[in-house]
């Protein structure tokens, strides 16, 4: 804490330490605290000018900031100047210079002026001489309008304003005041006069200061100078009220000694010899010292700052009524006396602002700081306003000092009405008796009507716990714009001020002097109750702050007695409600009470506490017994469940005869504090069609947001961020955010949105014409808009050729090549002063101005392109001088021109041939035009090469089975490519054909081609995309069939089919193929026999399949023969839909040169699949998975008479397996005659209940087909005997040792109630082998 300099006490006599023997006293008189503070600030700046400059540039003092803003001080320049100042040794006080300075300050005050010449015409040099100082160089600073010491110091150092030589960067030219402080002068006298005085319209004060700097004529000594002080506020620097006087200062080797003044300052002259001298401080219980290093005859500063410990009381807590109680206290070094204060410990009552009795008003004008019309409750409220257009600080200061206890807080009702952002309402607290103040609440105006109702403001004082404070309300206007006047619609209104856990230590206080030399304080209570005792020292002839309060209770001695206290204050049963204060809803505070048995003989028993009331609950239970003199605590918690007042009570039962049921009433308020806006949205300029975003940073309980556009709610804009997309000029407006919590709303500052329309990115004008570039800035009214056009990045001015450089439209007449450049417009929006006056900048997009001449066509450089070669991106017409449109005549068919861009797209669909069939060029006529006219026509030849002959023809492609693309049934595509690259054909899939049309994409140079064509399925089915690259190896093509819009795809494999009437194949005739299954299958789940087929090949490459599958199903298919590796080698697809589109057999077969045998094409092996049938069928209704089929066979040659068919032998074996025969296998010998007649031997098989009879087999000599049948008898000779007729079929495999392969079909026996015609049919295997 800092002592209040106004509370001066008579000087007390005290013994000081003895000076060194033979030294004389060197006196600087009694500098005041302000004068000493000025010297400390001067010496701090001289020791480190750069740091002082930075400190001043970062100052937050409102009066200093106001002066800096008023004179528009360039702080950067100022700091640079401080950085260049030299370091100087400290200045020392001189009594004669001080007397001269004080006299001049008093003269300026008495005669209301500021100047260096006195009212009698005297100069500073004359005044110094009159005081007895003979100088060798001097200087003087004067200031008659300082607010306080730091303000005056900043004025001298910054040197703001206009001096005799004028102004420079907001500072006096020459910086005379600053140069005086930082000169090589060594001694100083400072005179300060406090007060204000007005004469002739001029008012001086509240502080006037004169600083006299000088060097003595005889400059043969240095000075050790400094200050003795207690650093009460812990800032490691002297502050007024901290000085310790009466200490003796001795410096080794000096003929002088000093005694510190009441301000703490001292000066001791020393010889200038370079040496280190010991400096000691002693007296009044303090001792200390340091070294002073004398160098070059310079002054040296040595301070003495011992640690400060305030006087602390100790002793009994409970004291008897009307009996003197003794309490001891700790002493403080430097003290010459002590005082005891006793004050009743009572809470501070609510101030209803009904009169001005509790406060001292310091206002300007003639208005009364009390309103009976604008109030929250009662008859009146406090009010502060700025009555006139002038800088002012309107204040209401409470007369009492308050001790802040745990949980200390201040709350009040506040309503700030019409006010600007330069008008600020503040609650301020002082911890040094009113010498300095700090803000604990601040609210500026909004440049609008302000608050429509009183708002509850809650301020925590926890930072000041245990300290004594003064409180004041201040309504400040340091400069700028304001709403002045005393009408009810403006100013700050304050009502219902509540002090929580604060104690008034002024009202009713008894302060008594403690006899000298004593360390005990004596207090006799005259009334029952609680008192706060504190002791303060007297140092430097002034009373310092009181030490910590010591709480005592004055009690009447009884056998037993229940005393209930709150914060040390005794309560009365059923008395006024104990205040829990204003508590945020949902948060909890604890209310602690002390239960004390002040009796001296008996115990309190049966103690029990009951808590009632919404939001109140017990935290500790004091039940039980309390012996004499003992204490215990009772803690109740208050958690307001909702907004508003909440009352409760505590009933404490005991055996106290006077209060068997002690009642404590409770009262608290649940509050939802208003939301706090930390950052308002920021004004901006955004481009037409672009985006803009505004954000408000606010906090509060359950806050909600509503954005406003020109003060009207924006539907749906209810978050902390407002996003505007695709901006239109109508979006230009003023935006605010209204933030609400607990029914209380605050509105952010305004944010302006201006919408900028840029000129066209390219503006063309023909040479000699007039070009116009225009932008538009739509903005809400009230802001100042400005435009600045640039050419090539440099600002245009009135002397430049383009006109309208600072308007929205730029005109360039008689345009020529020198005007061609990039133009842009810089725009700005200056906000109104009420919104801070900031300048919001933006700029248009670049606009290229082009001076246009007639185009000149460039040769596009057509090459030798192929029919069906994609041209996209290959050729783009171009011309000099910015063409706007192109024309082309005589383009190859299929090629298109984009007239705007010159791009040629499409594919040439035909080659132009001469009479010899050779490629001939297309003569293409080209031209371009723009606003200046059309170019000359040029003719460019374009030769289109015919499609490579190898690409035209037929193609077949087999689609792999894929569940997603074709249901797992595969497919087949046949395509025809014309010499013009046109592609037609069809896709066979699930038994249906879908058309294919497209155009080849020929690679540059005819190196190859590819096909991408859509296949349009039936209505309701998705499309698939056929992708096939066609390269040199046309006998092995791969591609894909892609499901459009998905990632699903299946492979395509195939080849070109080269055979035709002009290119015939010798692989003609019939070819018998056995399609043998895997064997070993469960015939109940899948047919276990072999399938077979006959392929008929035509000379032109036609291929017709006819076959029978192992379940008896027949199939046919027509394909084209493809070439394989050898001259007569070929390959062939098979894709045959089955079962009405619910099954298929497919794969690839190949044959080498005759008489080669057929086998499967690697990667295209034959397989067969049947899906589950929607309608019941006798043969495999549930379908079966994919069955691999092996291909064996060759060309069938009819045997000559008397010869067996190729593949048969005279003696062979016939085997019958699976297909319902169970685990049985039957076989018999088969003799084949030279006429291919089959003679069968006896059928053999395992013993059992199954027999085969009537087995017959025949081979057709003309075709190699095998047919026959047998009868299957089960359970022969029994009543359960059954007979089933079975047919078999097969084919002779016409290769050596090929034998025969086939199958039989067997109907199962009917079950109970089942018809024989409806039973499932199984497939079994027939093998004819050697």
Give the gist of this structure:
This protein is mainly beta. The chain contains nine helices and 100 strands.
Q: Strands, helices and their partners?
A:
Elements: E1 24-25, H1 33-47, H2 49-57, H3 62-70, H4 75-84, E2 92-93, H5 95-111, H6 124-130, E3 135-146, H7 149-159, E4 167-168, E5 171-172, H8 176-181, E6 187-194, E7 197-199, E8 202-204, E9 207-216, E10 222-227, E11 248-251, E12 256-259, E13 265-270, E14 275-283, E15 286-294, E16 300-301, E17 313-314, E18 318-320, E19 325-329, E20 335-344, E21 359-362, E22 370-371, E23 381-384, E24 392-398, E25 402-416, E26 424-430, E27 438-444, E28 455-460, E29 468-477, E30 492-504, E31 510-514, E32 520-523, E33 529-539, E34 542-543, E35 550-555, E36 562-566, E37 569-570, E38 578-584, E39 589-597, E40 604-612, E41 616-618, E42 624-626, E43 631-638, E44 644-653, E45 661-671, E46 676-679, E47 684-687, E48 692-695, E49 697-699, E50 704-709, E51 712-713, E52 721-724, E53 733-741, E54 744-747, E55 751-757, E56 762-766, E57 771-774, E58 776-778, E59 784-791, E60 794-795, E61 809-812, E62 821-830, E63 839-843, E64 847-852, E65 856-857, E66 865-866, E67 879-880, E68 885-889, E69 895-897, E70 904-906, E71 921-930, E72 933-934, ...
Parallel strand pairs: 1-12, 2-6, 10-16, 18-35, 38-45, 47-55, 56-64, 66-73
Antiparallel strand pairs: 3-9, 4-5, 6-9, 7-8, 10-13, 11-12, 11-14, 14-15, 17-19, 19-32, 20-31, 20-33, 21-24, 22-23, 23-30, 24-29, 25-28, 25-29, 25-30, 26-27, 26-29, 33-34, 33-35, 36-37, 36-39, 39-43, 40-42, 40-44, 41-43, 44-45, 46-49, 48-52, 50-51, 50-53, 53-54, 53-55, 55-58, 57-61, 59-60, 59-62, ...
Helix pairs in contact: 1-2, 2-4, 5-6
